[in-house]
Write a structure and sequence with these properties.
Largest interface: A-B, 153 and 154 residues
Structural class of chain A: alpha+beta
Number of strands of chain A: 11
Cofactor (chains A, B): FAD
InterPro entries (chains A, B): ACOX_C_alpha1, Acyl-CoA_ox_N, Acyl-CoA_Oxase/DH_mid-dom_sf, Acyl-CoA_oxidase, Acyl-CoA_oxidase_C, AcylCo_DH-like_C, AcylCoA_DH/ox_N_sf, AcylCoA_DH/oxidase_NM_dom_sf
CATH superfamily of one domain in chain A: Butyryl-CoA Dehydrogenase, subunit A, domain 3
Largest sheet of chain A: 6 strands, mixed
Shape of chain A: globular
CATH class of one domain in chain A: Mainly Alpha
Helix content of chain A: 40-55%
CATH architecture of one domain in chain A: Up-down Bundle
Radius of gyration of chain A: 28 Å
Family (chains A, B): Belongs to the acyl-CoA oxidase family.
Strand content of chain A: 5-15%
Oligomer: homodimer
Distance between the termini of chain A: 30 Å
Keywords (chains A, B): FAD, Fatty acid metabolism, Flavoprotein, Lipid metabolism, Oxidoreductase, Peroxisome
Catalytic activity (chains A, B): a 2,3-saturated acyl-CoA + O2 = a (2E)-enoyl-CoA + H2O2
């Protein structure tokens, strides 16, 4: 329905959003390009632009109906896109990174999602050369489409509690996969519901009646031609979710399904087909390493995930005007930009600071991981040569560095994904009423991101692993047997200075600000240690303390990594002084608002004084908000999101917010095709819809 | 697709959810019925059951496809339900309360929503007898279907900034309604998009070129027979939203639309058609009162809104088992109920306490409102007799009580709706992975509730009104001219004791606990007053302080109201000692966890000591969680939600969580009707769907 001419002639009331946002950009001297290049590298940005051009030219990736489609249509379109994306990958010879960039630009989970990630990764990582030939090759050619079936209806976090069984049959040398209960159903499995024809099934290995814990088995589940489920397989989609509805998360029940011996992935542990003996895993710490890698990736991504919301909300706050300033002289014309209100700044700008804080932390984590991975490889080879056949417990001793990195990644995954998820919702609300419209682009992005707080370790569960590690480190420090790493260093400092007390100059010195966070972590660790070891409190009674401890530790790491990034030679070389100064202010803003929010722990540990927090709260933070505010637009621009990627009326780079909202509502909205009959007693529901099936029910 | 027999034979692994939940209920001696009756009255519960039976017997109210439908289908079904509900109202002679109960049970916004609330209310409240005859009568008979068009594309909170104009034409004695800009489009208007044929349009009244501010005008927008928009009217639905998608929130542009003189609602102000003179409103404080009423309702409802999430999460936490207790002796069989973990208790039980806290506060607010309304009526009559013709400013003096109630309702509306919205998300996450499934019933409920944080005053904007009132009261107290109310009383106490300091025994005395909250509010008020009056800081620079102040004041009120409810004669009479004891523990849990979360302000005001908070945190709160836990199931049962209303697999009263999740996924899910072709290069998308329109695009 094209609008009449008088509607087409209307413009937003002045000043125009495009002028406001242009003026806003002029307020800052930050070099957006330099900052973008520093954050992502020039090569990565050029690649992104190149791939974006390809996607935009393909009709199947047109996003204009995304917000209107129901579940079934969204899935169909997502499937068409997944297929086309694979074709483009082949055509343009994209590597895995290119393919990931394309997926990020499309910004929706797709039906091949778990095939191209977990299925291929698992086969590569856990398959023997023979198995790779058999399963990985057809999967890489998309002749097999697979998924990774671990979680069950009754078991998520507790992998050891999985119910699905894989029983070794020495007679015909097969495994029998079976779901003994309804709760044994595999559940939440991405790409399983409608798409996959193969699955890696995690099942309890049973040999001669003895259980050996969960192991991975490749299982064909659908016919390669008809795509119908095979005999003994009951499979389907688990239904709609809060988000992620372009993905067919599925369920799977297996009724005594026989698979050959070769289908148990055997790189790390296996069953000897002749003797029916179980052969123990050679190096579990390498698997351990993969999880650390995945979590580090989540930390790095959390900055960018949050940055989308911050970009949208900040741009809209520069265009949106509401009320006059209460202290403005009477007669002042025009309303105030929402971004000028301190209440809006206080909600948005600390999140803007968090995007950079998380990004730098993620980068530091990845670097540390790669460095350690090299060492681990050497360790693993050594262990493999000397300790083959030993159980998993004995092989852990050689991996102190990884233990630190593992714990760090657990805590930071929890903090990063929680910060991003909750921050996105803050951004959405900071957009006022229009934030609730799907066209804001934040709601669906938030809803799709939410599972990240649960998968790869539930954010609350993970904090126990962090606490366990910190307690262990603290015990080692007390015994004088600690390995030399950052954690033990801050504990040692704390123990040395504990009696004298700390005098952290948090308002004057950056390193003191970092040290205050280290002090709080150390204090909470030794408190928890006292509760556990001296007072013998139960583990369960300390879970809340552990969660607080893990959060404290992770916040310390984020503050420290931001601080170190600012000192780094590459930053000093690549960025100009104005930008470095603003980033420094963002560091202080992140650190001080975090400190203020968690003030109670900083007081009780005597890391800071009440007076210092009061000053930080009422003066320093407010001053920082004022100083960062003129740079807000350029800072979000540096995140380099294209309008196509954001798909947001409110976050348009050109500020044409109201035109875009109006266009989508009036021109793209299928509901406006219905002319209803509004009266309760009429027999007609929709005047122009023959399928108005509720007619007869009235 | 009916499952094969081997699937039908499967049961969840033992113990069964139904047994777990039954055992759980046996742990407590609380009388659920007595508590329900006390909360809602026996009559209200019986009415609810009676109406529930009627709705369940009507096919159109069947909820089984709600979570699967896309926007267009959801709207169609909602329209059919709205029509049928109106028919039932006539058939059973339901009053407004009955009708509201039915809507609450259906639990989705409907296309008649704004007609039956704001449109009718506005006509009743602001129409003259002649106008009521003309507009209200056909609206009450559903011959007119109306809506209330205030918010515009460019203006939400700032009503004075509305752009739509109503220009008086003395020639033919009409008003010309006009939208001068695109941003003047009415936007977000419930029931306008597809349903309404009339609207109350708020527009800037202009007489002889002079502006008189926003006023209400009745405007027909669609043809009574064809339902097509009238000439000069451009109207439609604004598109999908994060929630509320059963409602047709609409837009409206008007191009010089003429309406007769009688269409300006004239009970409070009007234009004299002969002289073209503006006649000033006689009693603006009565309108002021309506807003207070609406906000008080939101406070009362917030308890119940949150209780749905808490009910679902608590029941599921009693059924769900994950991991063994880490300290359990080795060899212990079976996993631990999730509700036994302190980390889960710490997230859920303070919210359970908040449901009761908000409920009691809402009830107290409503009672206070009604009491004051009587006084106001007398005031209004007095003013109307003596001050007719005076401007709005002069008539405010007589309404000190209402000013207090108004400010209180603003702050509590913000706190209550924020607590409910954010609490629901905490409940959803506390359900782990399955919380993300639509079948949890929390996600959609949360998404539909979210706008409450924005409408009837944005929760952040409202805090300014609270602060303004508290500053005014503080100034009056300092001048010795304060009216006698609770606010001025706590300020006076604070000023008297300020120098001696406070010694609140928050762990030993309930009244001291309440007093500590009063102390903190008073401290923050006088701090803010110093910043504003002595240091002459700008209003804008104090917005964050004002928001903190408003939150502190509202938390004080909630704690005080909970405390007073416990002392009330009716509670002591109607409930048994066990229940009263548990409610008392909930009071302390709510107060102490709130105090601990906001610890920093309690320290700096010297309302409590660091040592007290540390004790509260590590000992008292953990003890309270342990003591409340056995009663959790019965406490949520007392909220009296039927399974039909909750529509949640996880929140089933009988604990059959896994059976219900499986049934909905496998039997109700339309996506499972599609058999796809999984290969990227095939020309086929969906094997069994002729309309697979993306085929050609591959």
């Amino acid at each position: 329905m094209s609008p009449p001419q008088w509607v087409k002639d209307l413009k937003p009331s002045p000043p125009q959003g495009s002028d406001l946002i242009a003026t806003e950009r002029e307020k800052s001297q930050i070099s957006v390009d330099k900052l973008s290049n520093f954050l992502f590298t020039k090569e990565a940005l050029e690649r992104q632009d190149r791939i974006l051009a390809i996607l935009k030219s393909e009709e199947v990736f047109d996003k204009s109906q995304n917000y209107f489609h129901g579940r079934v249509d969204r899935f169909k379109v997502a499937l068409a896109r997944a297929k086309r994306l694979r074709q483009l990958q082949v055509k343009h010879n994209w590597n895995a990174d290119d393919y990931n960039v394309a997926n990020e630009l499309i910004s929706e989970p797709g039906p091949y999602g778990l095939h191209s990630s977990m299925y291929l990764t698992t086969l590569r990582g856990q398959g023997t050369p023979e198995q790779q030939k058999l399963f990985l090759e057809p999967a890489e050619n998309y002749e097999h489409i697979g998924c990774y079936a671990q979680t069950e209806l009754g078991h998520g976090s507790n992998v050891r509690g999985l119910e699905t069984t894989a029983t070794w049959d020495p007679q015909d040398k097969t495994f029998i996969l079976h779901s003994p209960h309804l709760t044994s159903a595999k559940w939440w499995i991405g790409s399983l519901g409608r798409t996959a024809n193969h699955a890696v099934v995690m099942a309890q290995l049973i040999i001669n009646g003895k259980k050996y814990g969960p192991h991975p088995f490749v299982c064909q589940i659908r016919d390669m031609k008809t795509h119908e489920p095979l005999e003994g397989v009951y499979v389907g989609d688990i239904g709609p979710k809060f988000g992620y509805n372009t993905m067919d998360n599925g369920f799977l029940l297996l009724n005594h399904v026989k698979i050959p011996h070769v289908n148990m992935l055997a790189r790390f542990s296996r069953v000897d087909p002749e003797t029916s003996k179980y052969v123990h895993p050679s190096s579990p710490s390498l698997i351990y390493g993969t999880l650390t890698w995945v979590r580090s990736t989540i930390v790095l991504q959390s900055g960018g995930v949050l940055a989308r919301g911050v970009t949208i909300a900040t741009r809209y706050a520069a265009v949106r005007r509401q009320f006059q300033d209460r202290d403005a002289p009477s007669g002042t014309l025009g309303e105030n930009q929402v971004l000028n209100y301190t209440m809006v700044q206080f909600r948005l700008l600390p999140l803007l600071a968090a995007t950079f804080a998380l990004h730098f932390t993620g980068k530091a984590m990845m670097a540390l991981y790669q460095e350690n991975q090299k060492k681990m490889q050497l360790d693993a080879e050594r262990i493999s040569n000397t300790a083959r056949g030993a159980g998993p417990e004995e092989t852990h001793s050689g991996s102190d560095l990884l233990a630190d990195l593992h714990a760090t990644s657990c805590g930071l995954k929890a903090l990063g994904s929680t910060t991003a998820a909750e921050g996105l919702e803050v951004c959405r609300r900071a957009c006022g009423g229009h934030g609730y419209s799907s066209f804001s682009g934040i709601g669906s992005w938030y809803a799709d991101y939410l599972p990240t707080t649960t998968w790869e370790g539930d954010n609350y569960m993970l904090t126990q692993q962090v606490a366990r590690y910190l307690l262990k480190s603290a015990r080692a420090v007390l015994k004088g047997k600690a390995p030399n790493n950052d954690t033990t260093k801050i504990f040692t400092t704390f123990l040395q200075k504990q009696d004298m007390g700390a005098a952290h100059d948090i308002l004057g010195s950056d390193s003191d600000l970092v040290a205050a966070f280290a002090w709080r972590t150390s204090f909470l660790t030794f408190e928890a240690l006292k509760h556990r070891d001296a007072e013998k409190n139960s583990w369960n009674s300390l879970l809340v303390d552990f969660w607080r401890l893990s959060t404290a530790h992770s916040q310390y790491l984020v503050v420290k990594n931001f601080y170190e990034a600012l000192q780094s030679e590459s930053l000093q070389r690549e960025l100009d002084p104005v930008t470095i100064d603003v980033l420094h202010k963002l560091f202080r803003l992140y650190a001080l608002t975090t400190l203020e929010k968690e003030a109670s722990e900083f007081y009780s540990s005597a890391a800071v004084t009440v007076r210092q927090i009061q000053l930080a709260r009422t003066k320093t933070v407010m001053k920082l908000l004022e100083e960062v505010r003129p740079h807000a637009l350029r800072l979000v621009d540096a995140w380099h999101f294209s309008d196509w990627q954001l798909d947001s009326s409110l976050g348009r780079k050109d500020g044409k917010v109201y035109e875009d909202l109006f266009y989508r509502a009036s021109q793209l909205n299928p509901l406006n095709g219905l002319t209803i009959d509004p009266y309760p007693d009429s027999g007609v529901l929709i005047k122009n819809d023959e399928s108005a099936k509720f007619k007869s029910k009235l």
